UniProtKB/TrEMBL annotation:
It is found in: Cell membrane. This is Probable queuosine precursor transporter. The gene is yhhQ. The keyword Transport applies. The chain crosses the membrane at residues 12-32, 44-63, 75-97, 117-138, 158-177, 183-208.
Length: 222
């Protein structure tokens, strides 16, 4: 008990931590998405961002569980703004003329290249999916009277991930790949997100239970 008291943090501190994590995961996911990899040598090609993306919804669930829908929206919009700043900064750096002797401009553009459709799809999908995820999470929590965390965590993700995947895949890839490839990409992306969040559900449970003990509900100060 003494250790728990020493580790206690205020609601404001916890909220700041969740906001920072949400923004970081979104930015890193978008950067990591420039790397494509063969999933366990199965021939299924995924982007690197798929590894981290489920964490954004887990963070969203934890934020909604502790702070409700309205404050979670602040986290979502803050993450959106931070990602937009990162994208603009990288774009500005990209269009700056390369220095004498620096021969990596093409490599930089290949890895960090500003791709309007992908960036637009990512940002719009993130905000839409996350807000819907949080809204559904709260509604399920009301219906179940605060019981069965797993039901609201998975239930909200089923809806939020679907909207997120539909919006991103449509904006980023429609017209650039065949209909068959588009449908396949849509299904694989959606199933992988849900599978990732389901596998990590015990971790989410543990984090929620730990912070319910560590967060001081009587203080808001940062």
């Amino acid at each position: 008990m003494d250790l728990i008291n020493k580790l206690k943090i205020s609601q404001g501190q916890f909220f700041a931590i969740l906001t920072a994590l949400s923004a970081t995961v979104l930015i890193v996911s978008n950067l990591a998405s420039t790397k494509m990899f063969d999933f366990f040598s199965t021939g299924l090609v995924w982007d690197g961002g798929a590894i981290l993306f489920p964490l954004s919804y887990i963070i969203g669930d934890i934020t909604t569980e502790f702070f409700g829908f309205e404050r979670t929206k602040k986290v979502i919009w803050t993450s959106f703004a931070m990602n937009l700043i990162a994208v603009l900064a990288l774009f500005i750096v990209q269009i700056l003329p390369p220095g004498p002797g620096w021969e990596n401009q093409l490599a930089y553009e290949t890895i960090i290249g500003f791709m309007p459709r992908i960036v637009a799809g990512s940002l719009i999908a993130f905000v839409s999916g996350q807000i819907l995820n949080s809204f559904v999470f709260v509604k399920i929590k009301e219906i179940t009277k605060g019981k069965h965390f797993w039901q609201r965590a998975i239930g909200s993700s089923l809806v939020g991930d679907l909207v997120d995947t539909l919006i991103f895949t449509t904006i980023a890839f429609i017209g650039t790949i065949s209909t068959t490839q588009f449908i396949g990409l849509l299904i694989i992306a959606y199933v992988s997100k849900i599978a990732g969040e389901t596998i990590l559900l015990p971790v989410t449970y543990a984090v929620v239970n730990i912070f319910k003990k560590l967060v001081d509900n009587e203080t808001e100060s940062v």
